[in-house]
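Lab notebook, bench 4. Still working through the backlog of constructs that have no structural model yet. Next entry is a single chain of 425 residues. Request: give me the structure tokens for it.
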Amino acid sequence: MNNNERYDLNDRLIHFFRPLDAEDPSFPGLPEYLGFNNEDIGDCKYSALFLLRCCIRNDKLWATWSYRGNARSVYGPNPAVCFTEMPFAAFVETARSRSKKAEKISIYGLSFKKSELFSMGARHVIYGLSNPSAVYPDSNNGGPRIFEERYLPSSEQFRYITYNPSITRPVDWTHEREWRLPYRGDLSKYENQISEFGIVESSDDVPGFYLSKEACSDIGIIIDKKKDAHKIIYDILCLIYRGTITKNKYTFLVCAEKIKNTKKYRDYYQEKKLIKKSLIPIEDYLKKNTKLAFSTKEQIEHYFCISFEKIISSRNYYPYEYGKCWIWFYNVFDKRVLAMLNEGLLIINNENKILFELETLDSSLPLQMQEEMIQNLSVIIKKKLKIQCGYYSVRDSKDCNDVPYYCSQDLSDLEDLYYNKSNDC
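Model written out:
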């Protein structure tokens, strides 16, 4: 038996997401723009599930100063991403009990190999300093808290956590078994936007780590509710088909709701078995069905001829607007949609819209005319092929990632897949 294979140790680190309240003094701030498919409903509350999906969809772990009240709890010049070394069972038990007390934690999180995060620069924190004469920086009204170099090198200050168990009101955060990954890149754009506007424009402007660009694989996902699994897998598949991530970037998804007795998984080997049986069947989604893909394509093109003739024969007037229109397929889990994706017949834009470009649709036609053709075609596709779809168009451009864009609004029961809402929990 390896000395590290113990119930109280773990070879993985968990980054958990906690619900946020914009009116809380410890609110870290969110970018103004998180993507059109990530919706802030405007009540100043952001669920942990919403933040997890934002992280996956934006392919980015944000580094923050981890404010408590109006003071930074990450010292030094570098913001950091925080992790816990708690084994899975301890994490779930802790999150459940602390959530009931409205503490700042949730079960929703990402699990990483400790060795890979270490290679990226993550280190376990330092609880307190041994120098009794060290001068501790004050809260600085929310600004930087930096030790003099003689007490702690600036490059290591991100690791410091206040610790004093011997005072009347002990300060002890050791239960979190924390690790931190510092962001050492340029902060000037971020700081300038915060200084001028009090908010950053987009996720790209927040310091952090693009997971697709980092040497980390075998990332696990931990969720609370079974109903959320499809939403997460939808997000992952869209990233794979867009070419943003490789198919082995995210490998397992554990649902805490399915685990009634966490004590079983306190055992090191039982935890490994849980991970193994929680593998995401990505390969099943990526299997090719060439016959189905091309027969579906041919049927759609045939139905388009019917729609085209109907619009042309109507002789309606359409004011000229330059642009391009696509068929938007709503459901990545539809077998025909998967078949076409796996043959490269569809594209997914930056907003996770699954689009089919009709080669026979002349994009020099007025945009409104194109839209009406696709809308008529989508009615036929829904009826004949049972594929839920609509139209998607971009004005003044042929790039499906440009704006302004226009689209169908009849997602109905698929809305929760496509839209990630801040109150979803």
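Notes after review: The mean pLDDT is 95. The first helix runs from residue 48 to 58. Flag for follow-up if needed.
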